[in-house]
Amino acid sequence: MAECRAEQKVIGDQDLSKISLKSSLRALDSLRFIAGCDHSRIYLLMSVHPQKEIREAAQVIQQEWQTYDIELTYDEKLYSVVKAFAAKQSSSKAEKLEPEEEKLLAESLRSYRRLGFELAPEKRNEVKILFQELHRIESSFSKNIQEYKDEIFVLPNELIGMDANFIASLTKKETGKVSLGLDYPTFLPIMEFCENESIRARLLERKYKTAEVSNRSQLNKMVELRMQIARQLGYKSWNHFVMEERMAKDPARVDAFLKELEGQLRRSAAKDFADLAALKAEHTTNPKAEFKAWDFYFYSSLRKKRLFAVDSQEIRHYFPLPQLLDGMFGVFRDLFGIKIIEEKAGSFYSWHPELRLFKVEDEDASGLGYFYLDLHPREGKYNHAAAFGLTGGRLLENGEYQRPVKAMVCNFPRAQGNEPALIPHREVETLFHEFGHILHGILTQAKYAQFSGTSVAWDFVEAPSQILENWAWDYQSLKRFAKDWRDSSKVIPEDLVFKMQAAKKAGNVLHYLRQVSLARADVTIHGEIAPCDAIEATNEVLSRIFLPVPPKTAFAAGWGHMVGYAGGYYGYAWADVMAADLFSRFKNEGILNASLGRQLRREIYEPGGSRDENVSLEAFLGRPLSNTAFFEDLGVAAG
Ligand SMILES: [Zn+2]
């Protein structure tokens, strides 16, 4: 940090009359690169280090880096440097810039403008205070959700459909009742498997009242502050402010996107809802049974079981971990034209003995980067799957390229006795997804750290990882490595793969309709016309597009995405539409088509944010983005 501060001072104190690309944008990129590497390594240690003391110390330093980042962002002198360089570029002394550098300059100026740097001093201060107030309320909103606790009490024998292990894990009361909390490991299984409708209803109602009392006014205040900030900065709404930096660029495009999705999905969804309602009538032997919000997961799951009897326990045998990793590496090695070579244990920096390190090389044996695999769970470790960065990529002053280092963190089971670690297929999908983030990082060729690897527009970042999931679902890909570990002559049967695909597809229409309802609620409350009450507005949208929310509930008070994803929730569906569209070329021209794989590498993975993501997408597709492939995958007729 001291090094960064010294460098920051050198850049800030330079003679502005002699400003150059090298002394301004390039120097700032280098400064942010150094700070970013240290920050991300500390962040990784905070998330995965086996020693508690180290994790805690890392957390403290991580916060210091965050504070320093704000200091850098608001440094007046650095702003003058960027402005001076911009002024030079519009004078007769302009340097010749490459397109990536033009983009860097434009985006640097834009970032400052978005912070209020171009406003008169007192206006600018107002914006700063509004941002501070917004962040303060956002933290308390999130904290209220995290700390919120509620529970209902039921008799164990009321929990029909729940397995004995689940019931045994619940806290027991003296009354003989057990407690059902709102945490996901309790809430989700109850919603999916509990036969007792009144228990599902009671628990869902409580869930949808999460933080209602404390967060109703907080949410409205957040929405109001966002609108004020946007207006002060010259935008029509928070949506306009957020989307300017995204691929979508404009709320009108998102609006059209959601409208089209909703229209197409609804036609299909009507049949799906009718099927589920019929299933409920049959299951409850009550022909008049009404289908409710708390029935959604239960009957979706029951329908899946009836239609496609796929035994997920049995499927695991085709995915023993070592064979799965080799298989996945093999597929993407052939597709992207790379080599993946394991480094010898003990020859590299490590935070845990189980850690493995792999070098990625290009076809001509030049190095592309490294990635760690931290595969198994342990006490205190980050408990989802994710790709972390340790070192970014960028072109150095001496003409060499600093190649990236990434880490894939998962929580796969370990081998037990004679049995290798067997990976459930949904985690196979996750593995392919996270490996997409790893490759997006490692294959980068962007010159500037600010654009390298996964540093792309928010609504684009999931596309390069999402698309790789397809290779975990396709028979041509799976048959290369999905072989029963007990008898390696037994390749995963093609009809089983079809069944798995059909089961996946079965719930997708309603899944996406729910996503669209959430995205629509988000853009509604952050639009040009402020809602009277954000919670009621959300209830109205969810009930209209998806399923009526239970009366007197307040879903949005407990909606964590309202911090960080405000005006951006549409990005989930957006990324899936893009991934489906990109993958459609592989569907047509061959899933293992190596020349197509190399095109994907060149047009999507290598550029990162160094050019507009719409340009990258169109370069690969040869046409603008379309949602036809997405609808085809869902089995929804386009048109
Ligand atoms: Zn992801």
Would you give an account of this structure?
- The protein is α+β, with helices and mostly antiparallel strands and 639 residues long.
- The protein is 55% helix and 7% strand.
- The chain has 25 helices and nine strands.
- Strands 3-4-5-9-6 form a five-stranded mixed sheet.
- Helix 2 (22-48) runs antiparallel to helix 3 (52-73), helix 4 packs across helix 5 and helix 12 (251-283) packs across helix 13.
- The N and C termini lie far apart (56 Å).
- The mean pLDDT is 94.
- Bound molecules: zinc ion (ZN).
Summarize the structure.
The protein has 25 helices and 9 strands. α20 packs antiparallel against α21. The radius of gyration is 26 Å and the shape is globular.
Please tell me how large the radius of gyration is: 26 Å
| Global outline | globular
Please indicate the percent range of residues in DSSP E strands (runs of 2 or more).
5-15%
Structural class: alpha+beta
Q: Identify the bound ligands.
A: zinc ion
Tally of strands:
9
Share of helix among residues? Answer: 40-55%
Give average pLDDT, whole number. 94
Termini, distance in Å?
A: 56 Å
The low-confidence parts are none
